[in-house]
Amino acid sequence: MARPLMDTYSPPDIDFERGEGAYLHARGGARYLDFISGIAVNGLGHCHPAAVAALKAQAETLWHTSNMFRVPGQIELAEKYCRDSFADRVFFTNSGTEAMECALKTARHYHFANGRPDRYRIITFTGAFHGRTFGAINAGGNPAYLEGFGPRMEGFDQVAFGDHDALKAAVTEETAAILIEPVQGEGGVRAVPDVCLRGLRELCDEHGLLLIYDEVQSGAGRTGKLWAHEWAGSAQPDIMAVAKGVGGGFPMGACLTTDAAGAHMKIGTHGSTFGGNPLAMAVGNAVYDELTRPGFLDHVTAIANTLRQQLSGLVDAHSGKVAELRGRGLLIGLKLKDGYVNKSLAAKAREHHLLMGAAGDNVARLAPPLIIDETHVREAVAALDAALGALEPQ
To answer: What is the DSSP string of 53-113?
Structure first.
């Protein structure tokens, strides 16, 4: 009998029953060190006490009202986001791809509201991943994700990642915005240099464009700053999409904007039935309070440095198989050499009870919980060392 689920995923033959901290426990008792965290989602690890308590308390009082009515938790969390970032306004969503859709609409509507409806084109970059909705896959431009879904959507101009001349040439009178991930996740864990982010800000200012950051994967403390672009200093965006880690495992996202970029989004321009529901806001507030607790991000930076040092030694030891160590903070990629396959490495690591992922450009991806310590690092590096040792060319 065929599975009742659509065959859009091919998970391994493991059923996880519970999670605790950096570990997942499978049916039958096997324990796995989780260094992919639900694809950079479970930043506080599994079943963090503060998030669990917030969810339980809210679940016993009120689950859903829709945005027909005020949700006090939205105001509380939006004030925190705006207090600690470039933003003045927030729209809450259920996911990263929804946050991106809001960001794209906001950028186009900004120019419409300012008398320039002809400015609707958005520049994006090769290797980008912005979600799986129709607008998001067209923004990302990956042919594999576009195949079979009809003609490409008009209005996106994709340039090669890192090609500054091509970027400048792509700007026209119809350009509305530039969209980029400060650290590409799915595209191969490639960090945009800080100087390039500052250059993008300058280019946008020069031409009256909006700068949009997709921090769905790189945000929520994953790089050691609350948002990855903060490492670049004076490179703040006009619009930013966030999700994944901001909910700590509960589905939620948000589109953050400056007052100038977002003030024109009035009643009727956008909406969501479930976005910003009381359950999500209770967990989102608890997660944010943990991320911004004194010393938390310092820990992320310190443990990320420890992990990178250990991985650098591993790359040297397996230089015949690993070409490069990439990423920033606790979003890390191992670029494998030709003949070795990232998904095969993830499978070998799983045999040693380490969970990791795969990304584009033949990169094996690590995105562990932000709460890991040196014991977890040693355990992960040992398992990865054994997995690389067993990895055969294909």
So the answer is: HHHHHHHTT-----TTS--HHHHHHHHHHHHTSS-SEEEEESSHHHHHHHHHHHHHHHHHH
330 secondary structure, DSSP code: T
- DSSP string over 228-285: GGGGGSS---SEEEE-GGGGTTS--EEEEE-HHHHTT--TTS---SSTT-HHHHHHHH
Concerning whether 118 is annotated as a catalytic residue, the answer is: no
Give the C-alpha separation, 300 to 287, whole Å: 15
Q: Of these residues, 34, 35, 157, 214, which one is catalytic?
A: 214
Domains annotated on the chain, with CATH: 16-34+295-390 (3.90.1150.10), 50-291 (3.40.640.10)
Choosing from 34, 35, 161, 244, the catalytic residue is 244
Question: Is 80 a catalytic site residue?
Answer: no
- Verdict on whether the full-model pTM lies above 0.90: yes
Closest to 87 in 3D by CA, of 277, 257, 209? 257
* Each residue's pLDDT tens digit, 38-96: 999 999 999 999 999 999 999 999 999 999 999 999 999 999 999 999 999 999 999 99
Catalytic residue among 86, 91, 129, 250: 129
Contact 42, 34 (CB under 8 A): yes
Burial class (CB in 10 A: 0-12, 13-18, 19+), 198: middle
Note if 244 is an active site residue: yes
The tens digit of pLDDT for each residue in 162-213 reads: 999 999 999 999 999 999 999 999 999 999 999 999 999 999 999 999 999 9
